DNA sequence: CGCGACCTTGAGTAGGCTCAATGCCGGTGG
DNA sequence: CCACCGGCATTGAGCCTACTCAAGGTCGCG
């Protein structure tokens, strides 16, 4: 792939992976770490805007996000786009492709990013030899299903302003979970209003006006491609409760 | 639970499970069957309209649908409802509850139904002793994520008539996969227009009018709580292509 | 016979869409 | 150094899809 820069070999030994220091990730035994090491086949670097994989392709790899952001989306034949979710450091990608015949969605980098690469065959070895890690993989799948459930509820049943409030809270929570913002509510992610619109099933113009309402209501601040949450309570009120899932200690492959 | 009728012991030995005869389900080895037998702790019968579990509760059980239909949904505090998906024979339910702290969604029977019950602890035994079955569980989770992706695309980016067309096709395909309809396109499921509306993020009235358009266009027929697909091509055209996922041979726990 | 569940239809409204134009900023090439 | 261009945010105007409120019809059941 011309656009993907393959970095040679293992760059970061898993034991030293900076992500593992974060308290959201459950500690691994050294035996588990050794296996993950052997499972990992290298790293990839991606520039903002580049695709990691595309709908319809088969994808032999699995990935863990080391740094940077991406989003997962689907397109309709005429080009309408629905963003399904955002991928943050620690997220495990490509399970669908390794388990099914072909990818049913695409993933594109939102910022420059680095990912760990695993071979599909390794996944089978993982299941054969490490019950705990297998369980972790399933756990991650179940969790991402929960997030999709929430998103579907939002898009199906919330009004525009409720959707915006809910999404912004959700993003702020996820970002701060993995330590990407020093203050919990100052979010610095390279997201455009078009992304928000495509996430929420709204038009760009209407998204802009709706964010405008939140800005004028002093609930958030928006300055080119990043935002800040000023009034968390107001947003939670609008969103109809804060549905962040607690007990968020999770595995990191 | 007053409303749930617990049937004693194992009613149907897994080897004789009528579902296994269907060609959509991958054949199990007798060793696997024996394990599933030992994993299964009994059956439950549910009457139409009864809940299987509710959001916020913890749920120690896993279920496989033996017969009947159900749907999975979430509610907003003010009562707005979003249906997330439909559960059909062979579907595996409750993974989220077994793997996370508590249920983030509810499930309600659409018709009378019978389900196999498994204990949450058994799942751990399964992962420890049967790599193949563990992989199957993950496979099922990945597949239901794909279905959610499709649904989210629909609700977020399709117009009312496109959503209806897509959903009806999808339901018809799933139902005929598990042999619930003799002709592929005559669907007999006890679904109301309110369910359709809540699945698609539309109001009841608008759903009714939209279905009316499809009926007048001779694409479908609707007679109280069941429907028939008359013109599959027209629906596929409206839906923007048939996105049924091929290679649908799947495991059955 | 009355009631409840579901489907249908009408009328008026509004939330969200499209089209279109403008402003801002950063990068790039002449 | 400046002109131009592309990406993003913003705003106005008009329209239409989908919503709400409301009423009526059918059917099955106690």
Summarize the structure.
2 copies of one chain form a homodimer. Chain A has helices spanning 30-39, 95-99, 120-129, 131-157, 160-177, 193-200, 204-216, 232-239, and strands at residues 5-7, 40-46, 51-53, 61-67, 70-75, 81-87, 92-93, 106-109, 113-119, 186-187, 220-223, 226-229.
The strands making up the biggest β-sheet of chain A line up spatially as 1-2-9-4-7
Apparent shape of chain A: globular
Oligomer: homodimer
Which percent range fits the helix content of chain A? 25-40%
What's the end-to-end separation of chain A, in Å? 24 Å
Number of helices, where a helix is a run of at least 4 consecutive DSSP H or I residues of chain A: 8
Largest sheet data of chain A: 5 strands, antiparallel
Q: What pair of chains forms the biggest interface?
A: A-B, 50 and 50 residues
Strand fraction of chain A equals 15-25%
């Amino acid at each position: 792939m011309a656009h993907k820069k393959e970095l040679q070999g293992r760059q970061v030994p898993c034991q030293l992976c900076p992500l593992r220091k974060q308290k959201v990730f459950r500690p691994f035994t050294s035996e588990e770490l050794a296996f993950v090491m052997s499972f990992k086949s290298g790293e990839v670097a991606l520039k903002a805007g580049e695709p990691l994989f595309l709908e319809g392709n088969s994808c032999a790899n699995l990935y863990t996000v080391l740094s940077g952001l991406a989003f997962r989306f689907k397109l309709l034949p005429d080009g309408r786009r629905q963003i399904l979710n955002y991928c943050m450091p620690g997220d495990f990608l490509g399970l669908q492709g390794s388990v099914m015949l072909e990818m049913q969605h695409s993933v594109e980098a939102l910022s420059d990013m680095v990912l760990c690469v695993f071979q599909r065959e390794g996944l089978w070895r993982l299941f054969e030899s490490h019950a705990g890690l297998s369980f972790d993989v399933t756990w991650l799948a179940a969790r991402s299903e929960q997030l999709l459930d929430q998103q579907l509820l939002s898009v199906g049943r919330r009004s525009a302003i409720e959707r915006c409030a809910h999404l912004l809270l959700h993003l702020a929570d996820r970002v701060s979970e993995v330590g990407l913002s020093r203050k919990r509510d100052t979010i610095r992610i390279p997201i455009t209003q078009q992304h928000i619109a495509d996430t929420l099933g709204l038009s760009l113009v209407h998204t802009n006006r709706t964010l405008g309402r939140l800005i004028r209501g002093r609930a958030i601040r928006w300055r080119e491609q990043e935002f800040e949450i000023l009034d968390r309570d107001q947003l939670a009120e609008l969103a109809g409760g804060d549905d962040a899932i607690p007990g968020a200690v999770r595995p990191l492959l």
